[in-house]
Design brief:
- The protein is an all-alpha fold and 79 residues long.
- Helix content is 63%, strand content 0%.
- It has 3 helices and no strands.
Length: 79
């Protein structure tokens, strides 16, 4: 299992990775003009993902998982 810091970095960089924007462009469009997601947005997306996992941990009454995702959230805030 990843440390909270490793998980925070993984989530953040997965949200920031924009090698391809994922939007289907028309066949005659030979370039992608989509803007790269900025660091603030990537951080917010990672925090949303952690919040969902934390809510699941609460529903399962899994204290260990709640503590883990609380630590992950704190690590994301430091990025």
């Amino acid at each position: 299992m990843n440390t909270p810091k490793e998980k925070a970095e993984e989530l953040f960089y997965n949200m920031y990775n924009t090698e391809h924007c994922g939007i289907e462009h028309s066949p005659n469009k030979h370039y992608c003009d989509c803007n790269e997601i900025n660091l603030f947005q990537a951080k917010q997306c990672a925090l949303l993902a952690v919040n969902e996992m934390y809510k699941l941990a609460c529903e399962l009454d899994n204290v260990k998982m709640m503590n883990y995702y609380n630590d992950v959230e704190q690590e994301i805030e430091k990025l």
